[in-house]
Amino acid sequence: MLLVPRKLRSLFQRPQVKTPLLKKIFAIALLFCVGLGISLTIFEITTVEVPVLGFHDVIDISNPEELPPKRLSQEGDYTKQKLATFIEDLVRENYWFLSTAELYDYFLSPHKRAIPKEHQNQNPLLLTFDDGYKSAHKNILAIAEDIERRYGKKIKIVWFINPAFLGHHGTKLERISCNDLRTGLERGYYDVQSHGLNHLNLTQIPDKQLDRELKVAKEELKTCTQGLDPDNLVASQIAYPFGAVNARVKERVARYYKAGYLYNSRILRPKYLKDNYLIPRLTIYNEVSVKRLKILAAGGWL
Predict the structure, then answer these.
(1) Which of 32, 109, 189, 291 is deepest in the core (most CB within 10 A)?
(2) Which of 146, 123, 128, 111 is nearest to 49 (CA)?
(3) Whose CA is closest to 268, among 297, 245, 294?
């Protein structure tokens, strides 16, 4: 079935055409709309899409300790209950939960590797979580363990971490610890990447401080995960804090990382990505339903 954008559907409702000229105009408009619909459908079918979903904290609404007044509510919170339903649905539908290394190697690298046979008929996506909140770790790890127990499959969770805050209780929310990261790595669930050292806007700091934010973040994450990273994948990529990047930041980032991620509510179409330091991510907030998440995971505008 050919799908046509909603705004164009009204053109298919045949008007009362009374003159040969109007008939010709109507016929031309109809042919144009049909051609546009066919072109967009072909584009959608032939273009590989890799949704990169960007989350922040994950809260368990059955746990009073994770709800007000015990804990401040934030726009980026997503519930464990909705996330568990979403992930289980994707597992049942045989999605491919990519790591950042797999995304780079199979979809972005100038020397792309052939997609393994076992993944060739799967829909790929990345689940990414910024900032490293303790409650997110606790709830995500429980979901991952439950999925493996019931389905025999491991899902991959990408963490973009600010190592300066590892184990930090802070004034608002507790952060993940180094031991938490190591636990997730040892069990095969976590992919640990950089989010800068202190979560600063990298476009607003001088070069010396920028280099420290990039270099020290990488060093500290590698120190934390020492002995658990035989392929040297930890902190090989970065998500820009606040999604902020410019030419100067990209030039500096390229000295330490092989790819950079935005936070701009756009879907990744690897064929059309011109710069591996501008990988788009879809922004996920607490009001996004499971149904909407599944639409985003499936990709496309139709």
Answers:
(1) 189
(2) 123
(3) 297
The pLDDT tens digits of the residues spanning 215-272 come to 999 999 999 999 999 999 999 999 999 999 999 999 999 999 999 999 999 999 999 9
Q: Report the phi/psi class of residue 261: left, alpha or beta, with left for phi > 0 and alpha for psi in -120 to 50.
A: beta
First to last CA, the chain: 12
* Whole-number average pLDDT of the chain: 89
220 and 163 Cβ atoms separated by less than 8 Å: yes
pLDDT at 3 over 60: no
- Alpha-carbon gap, residue 45 to 48, rounded angstroms: 8
Residue 146 has a CB neighbour count (10 Å cut-off) of 13
Whether the per-residue pLDDT at 17 is higher than 90: the answer is no
Q: What is the pTM of this model?
A: 0.84
CB 53 within 8 A of CB 283: no
* Both tokens assigned to 14: 């045949």
Tens digits of per-residue pLDDT, 147-167?
999 999 999 999 999 999 999
Contacts of 97 (CB under 8 A, 6+ apart): 90, 125, 126, 127, 155, 156
HEC-encoded secondary structure of the chain: CCCCCHHHHHHHCCCCCCCHHHHHHHHHHHHHHHHHHHHHHHHHHHCCCECEEEECCEECCCCHHHCCCCCCCCCCCEEHHHHHHHHHHHHHCCCEECCHHHHHHHHHCCCCCCCCHHHCCCCEEEEEEECCEHHHHHHHHHHHHHHHHHHCCCCCEEEEECHHHCCCCCCCCCECCHHHHHHHHHCCCEEEEECCCCCCCHHHCCHHHHHHHHHHHHHHHHHHCCCCCCCCCCCCEEECHHHCCCHHHHHHHCCCCCEEECCCCCCECHHHCCCCCCECCEECCCCCCHHHHHHHHHCCCC
Asked if pLDDT for residue 42 goes beyond 60, the answer is no
